[in-house]
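Q: Structure tokens for this one, please.
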Amino acid sequence: MLSRTADNLYWLARYVERAEFLARIIKAAQRLATLPASYSGAGTEWESALESSGAAQGFHATRGAAGEASVVDYLTFAPDNPSSICNCIKFARANGRAVRTALTAEMWEAINGAWIELGRFEASNNGSSRYDREALSHFLEFVKKTSLDYDGCVDRTMLRNDAYWFSRVGLYIERADNTARILDVKYHVLLPQDEAVGGSLDYFQWTAILRAVSSLTAYHWVYRESVKPWLVADLLILKKEMPRSLIACYDNIIRFLDAIGDAYGRAGASQRQAHEVMARLANATTKEIFKTGLHEFITAFVEDNDRLGQTINGQYLLH
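A: Here is the predicted structure, written as tokens:
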């Protein structure tokens, strides 16, 4: 496979996953913003949305204070935000179009149809009406459905070869980064310094985070008790059964990177790095993570994940 083709497939998957994550982050911030005043904390939910998405620096360089309207605008349709939902879908479609013959008909229809529908949203929802709560909710559901439709098409129709493997590696690299960021932001941005860990505000915020990654039901199935920070961290970091957990993401990354290495007859730095990260996750415990610091653990993981992405780029994708 040409590195150009692998690069397009890898980034197509990452952009689709990123768009869905942004939709979930906005929905979570809305839930936190509409809590009763007694649970509303310091009003940092929209700042946390920016931090989770990795867009805080770009936002503050061009916008003012982080309020609902300005943050929603920046994360959904802002042309100057390269990671806005709108740009993610457009970039995903551009990558798909570049490798149209590597996609199944269903995959192309899913991403091209989303791009066409996005144009209708841009045309019909302009100005203040774009951010009407009902219109925004409809748009966010459209984004999540787009991701689910595309992912289902990949899983059900794509030949299990190097094209599929590069697509899946991109998906899980992006998903691991997203899960890590939302965990770190909750722990360091949302909860005010004078609010007790385990208090009512802490409970509602962790519940909103679990809802954001579709894990609240899974949490209650696994632990069968009220929401506790260390158990949420255990679920989203160390439980292989949880598809968005860090260890589940790396289990898949290793599987697909090893398949690529076997197919090409040689493993390399990306396979070694992925196995190293997986070994650290497999040997970690929630007690040790909180003892050394959740923020420090997550920061190191995000850096390792970014480094792996760069190594994959150098080993297989465009230079």
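A few notes: Residues 237 and 246 are 5 Å apart (CA to CA). The two ends are 15 Å apart (CA to CA).
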